[in-house]
DNA sequence: TTACAACTGTAGTGATCGCTACAGGAAAGC
DNA sequence: GCTTTCCTGTAGCGATCACTACAGTTGTAA
């Protein structure tokens, strides 16, 4: 069934164990933050001893960085990008905003953990935080490119401003959803956000 | 000089000690989150023994709740509300947004700690988190009233939506400032946010 | 002077922290 | 069979955790 992966076979339940450890970690970290994520609790939740965790991951920092990485991958996978060539700019921006919103609903861990790490400003940077900021920087560039393409009238400073506002809106709406729960319609709010961005772009273009 | 406060005089450096403890706590909590805030570290930073901390505060939960409370008070104090009767609605909304922005620049701890606590979803609610959510609910109602007053054409559902969007924008822009530091002009972004809200209100009124 | 309330300092409690040493089991290759 | 590699289980390291008991100090009021 599952034959050779690379030259060397994967043994027993190593892959499965790694997955279980990451599942437990994302759960604990989402509840208690970076410092609150204790190896003992993760061990209890995933049913594997601490030594297994330390066999798969160098240390706690490495573990949490791996969680961020996997969560981001899942979020990206949930993001089915809209067709690049369809409809008006307005329709395309709205479409993109809705895609982002549904991806956040499907895979919220990435942004939740990322924001938690971001708000903490400890002297020694956890590598998970650094990783989140890199991903975010990447997203920033992508969105900036999109604005530059859709709104040719914008000067670079305006594109920067608008991009920052766009990402901030996404963060804030996500937080609102985390607080408000089912009472908050994230997709509708992102649609509104797209509208707002469009109007702002028009204002800044003039 | 400082005579009777209530009937009983305040002794020695109790008030001063309480202040130093809270100062140290806000610093530590901002760096390391709720779980990461250890009494030993707070004790070291403020130069007072743990027993003093426990004399002033019931437990760690109580301490952090007090920090949130004081931080909110300071933020409110930094918020010099605009004159209720001056200018067009647009000018008044923009003015308010700028006031909120500068207050956040002057007293950022409140929102930072609040958001950190908000994103954590531990089974047993820390009272600090509850306190933040109450304050936020209060702010929500105030902003909703403002929208209802300035934009009479909005139906209640639209007011709710817009208010959620307004608060989310504030949260997100604050996070952007925390990440971007000096590269982010918070006041300018809040001005943009006011503009966006105005345009959205117009769209939702029609 | 006495009495008391308001703090501070010392010295711990048992529990939990991140992490490690190391023996052993289970599957794959020889 | 034997070895090698992968992974788990047990036990425990020193450090730190939240918190407390309690004696000591000090300003104020009677």
From TrEMBL, chains A, B:
InterPro entries: Homeodomain-like_sf (IPR009057), HTH-type_TetR-like_transc_reg (IPR050109), HTH_TetR (IPR001647). The keyword DNA-binding applies. It comes from the Bacteria. One of its GO terms (molecular function) is transcription cis-regulatory region binding. Keywords: DNA-binding. Transmembrane segments: none annotated. PANTHER family: HTH-TYPE TRANSCRIPTIONAL REGULATOR RUTR, POSSIBLE TRANSCRIPTIONAL REGULATORY PROTEIN (PROBABLY TETR-FAMILY). This is AcrR family transcriptional regulator. It comes from Kutzneria buriramensis.
């Amino acid at each position: 069934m599952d034959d050779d992966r690379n030259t060397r076979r994967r043994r027993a339940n190593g892959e499965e164990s790694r997955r279980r450890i990451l599942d437990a970690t994302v759960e604990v970290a989402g509840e208690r933050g970076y410092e609150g994520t204790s190896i003992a609790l993760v061990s209890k939740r995933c049913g594997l001893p601490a030594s297994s965790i330390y066999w798969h991951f160098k240390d706690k920092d490495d573990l949490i960085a791996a969680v961020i990485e996997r969560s981001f991958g899942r979020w990206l996978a949930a993001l089915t990008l809209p067709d690049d060539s369809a409809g008006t700019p307005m329709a395309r921006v709205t479409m993109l905003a809705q895609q982002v919103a549904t991806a956040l609903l499907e895979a919220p861990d990435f942004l939740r953990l990322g924001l938690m790490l971001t708000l903490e400003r400890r002297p020694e940077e956890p590598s998970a935080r650094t990783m989140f900021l890199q991903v975010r920087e990447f997203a920033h560039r992508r969105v900036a490119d999109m604005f530059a393409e859709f709104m040719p009238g914008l000067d670079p400073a305006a594109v920067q401003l608008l991009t920052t506002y766009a990402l901030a809106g996404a963060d804030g709406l996500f937080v609102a959803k985390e607080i408000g729960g089912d009472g908050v319609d994230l997709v509708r709010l992102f649609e509104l956000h797209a509208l707002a961005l469009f109007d702002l772009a028009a204002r800044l273009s003039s």
